[in-house]
């Protein structure tokens, strides 16, 4: 997939009518990339939660270095804790066990 910078350069050279069309395509590609990233994080989190060995998760994610996978899973845990805290705060359930 081309980078957004590459797409921006192509869009800048296009005629005004085509630019509108190309911007829609660019934004759709960005959103699809975000969805793919979310699915990847979700899958890694589910595997970790089900005690899949970190070496197996590393291979599935295609990480060359185990530390990358450990950092990735640690970040997911932090993000999940933050999301849960925010959901609890919004629902008035903050501080419940």
Fold and architecture overview:
- It is a single chain.
- With 97 residues, the chain is mainly α.
- It has one domain (4-91).
- It is 80% helix and 0% strand.
- The chain is elongated.
- Residues 93-97 have low confidence and may be disordered.
Which range does the strand content fall in? under 5%
Number of domains: 1
Proportion in helices: over 70%
Which structural class should the secondary elements be placed in? mainly alpha
What attributes does this structure have?
4 helices; 97 residues; mainly alpha
Topology overview:
Elements: H1 4-13, H2 16-49, H3 54-61, H4 66-91
Helix pairs in contact: 1-2, 2-4, 3-4
Offer a concise description of the structure.
The protein has 4 helices and no strands.
């Amino acid at each position: 997939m081309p980078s957004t910078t590459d797409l921006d350069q192509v869009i800048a050279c296009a005629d005004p009518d085509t630019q509108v069309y190309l911007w829609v395509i660019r934004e759709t590609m960005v959103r699809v990339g975000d969805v793919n990233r979310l699915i990847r994080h979700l899958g890694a989190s589910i595997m970790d939660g089900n005690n899949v060995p970190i070496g197996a998760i590393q291979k599935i994610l295609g990480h060359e270095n185990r530390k990358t996978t450990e950092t990735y899973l640690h970040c997911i845990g932090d993000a999940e804790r933050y999301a849960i805290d925010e959901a609890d705060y919004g629902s008035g359930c903050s501080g419940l066990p």
